[in-house]
Write a structure and sequence with these properties.
single chain, five-stranded antiparallel β-sheet, alpha+beta
Amino acid sequence: MQNSNIIEHCGIVESVENNVVRINILSASACSSCHLKGACSAAETENKIVEVFNPEKKFSIGEEVNVIAKESIGFKALFYGYLFPFIFIVSTLIITSFFTDNEAIIGLLSLVVLVPYYFILSFYKEKLKKIFTFKLQKI
C-alpha cells in the first residue's frame, strides 16, 4: 500500500496480549523509499517496538506485518518531540538573556525548561497513545 499520506514500516509480531500487539519494527527495510526518513526516529538502524491497541484482525507471534500510520501523525510526533522543545529552549535563551549576562545561567535555564515540559508530557501519555495510533496489515 504505497500512498504519499501513509508511513509504512515492516515488522514482526513480538507478542499479543489483551488486545495489544507489540511489533518489532525492522527499520532498514521500509525506510529507503520514505521521504521522511531524515526526520523519522524509526528510520535509525536499531529496531523499535511499537504497540498497536485493539487491532482489527488477529495476529500471531512471529508473523510479518506492515505497521501503517498517517503522515500527519509523524508530523505531530516531530512537533511534540522536537519543535516544541526547540521553541522552549530558544525562547528561554532569549528571555533569560535580557535579565542576566551570565551565559552559564542562560544555558542552564534554557535546558532546565525542558524538565517540566517532558514531565507534563508524561502525564498525557495515555492521551498521546490515542492520538498516535497505528494500524496493522498482514503481509
